[in-house]
Amino acid sequence: AHSLIVDATIETLLLLIVIIIIIVIIRAKNVIWKSTNFKTVLVWEPKPSANYSYTVELSPVGGNAQKIPNCIQSSQTMCDLSTAMTDPKACYVADVLSQPPRGVIPELSEFPHKTSPKFCPYNDTEIDRPKFTLEVSKGKATLNVTDSPTAIFNGQHLQTLRDIFSEQLHYKVTYWKNRSTGKKTSDSQTSMIEVTGLDQGESYCFQVQVYIPSRTYGKQFGDLSHAQCSEVENQSILDGELLYFSTVLTTKRNTSAFITSKVFVMNVQLQSVCAVVARILSRNPTAPPSGSCYSNRQ
């Protein structure tokens, strides 16, 4: 009889401990997804006290839940789920369970939990601004866009946006004359983009963003890249990159005084150095430069 009383007392104490723990454990709230280029993190509030911790379970919609190894009985309020989402075209939900810390008490009861909104990486991840190089020549601009890497692996291969979206990956180019407000756009399905019909002698600015036409409205466009502007395009190297003016202003004073003014306006280029050298080496400072450079400019 005495042992029965002791057992009942122990069970009552354990039940009271569980009730107290449940009371002091706070359910997670404000559970949201943060995802860019398939780098997907679940975040929530509040920061736990010493009385409880968080465990995250992830499940594809209609599938079985799995605990995330790095997010079991953790004091953190975030969990990186990028590598756990093996199918980017699937949709997922996550549960954030509030539990006692490791070693405090066995799981004798179902503790408070909060379920996240549904998240579909293919449609919902935000797309960061792309990087690109720019070349402009003879009224044509060539943009080489880098297909951004994601956080998803296919075996040992880190996949790019091109790997995941395939033919659905488009790039939208917005361009305009420098210091002008009028803008034009161009759409390309490739990472090498050519924009033609530009006015020679003008500087143009370009921005690029990812465009996924198969996505739902409002999620089709990624962030705009930083703008890149071209240099003013010259018609020829010798005519446009080295302008040489020599003006001789002659005023006679006592039949011997002369004033010579020379103005050089240069954009230093290797192809034009010969004209400068010819001018410097000339014995007569008022004479125009001679040689093939000057002759070609005529």
From TrEMBL:
- Report which superkingdom the organism of origin falls in: Eukaryota
Q: According to its UniProt record, where is this protein mainly located?
A: membrane
Domain (Interferon/interleukin receptor): residue spans on this chain: 125-231
Q: Which UniProt keywords apply?
A: Blood coagulation, Disulfide bond, Glycoprotein, Hemostasis, Lipoprotein, Membrane, Palmitate, Signal, Transmembrane, Transmembrane helix
InterPro entries associated with the record: FN3_dom (IPR003961), FN3_sf (IPR036116), Ig-like_fold (IPR013783), Interferon/interleukin_rcp_dom (IPR015373), Tissue_factor (IPR001187), Type-II_Cytokine-TF_Rcpt (IPR050650)
Q: What does this protein do?
A: Initiates blood coagulation by forming a complex with circulating factor VII or VIIa. The [TF:VIIa] complex activates factors IX or X by specific limited proteolysis. TF plays a role in normal hemostasis by initiating the cell-surface assembly and propagation of the coagulation protease cascade.
This protein's GO cellular component annotations are: plasma membrane
Q: Give the similarity note.
A: Belongs to the tissue factor family.
Query: Mind listing the GO molecular function terms for this protein?
Result: cytokine receptor activity
Q: Which residues cross the membrane?
A: 12-28
Q: Would you kindly state one Gene Ontology biological process term found in this protein's UniProt entry?
A: blood coagulation
Q: Where in the cell is it found?
A: Membrane
Its quaternary organisation is:
Interacts with HSPE; the interaction, inhibited by heparin, promotes the generation of activated factor X and activates coagulation in the presence of activated factor VII.
Please report the record's description of how this protein sits within the membrane: Single-pass type I membrane protein
- Residue span, Fibronectin type-III domain: 18-101
Its name, as the record gives it, is Tissue factor
PANTHER family (alphabetical): INTERFERON/INTERLEUKIN RECEPTOR (PTHR20859), TISSUE FACTOR (PTHR20859:SF22)
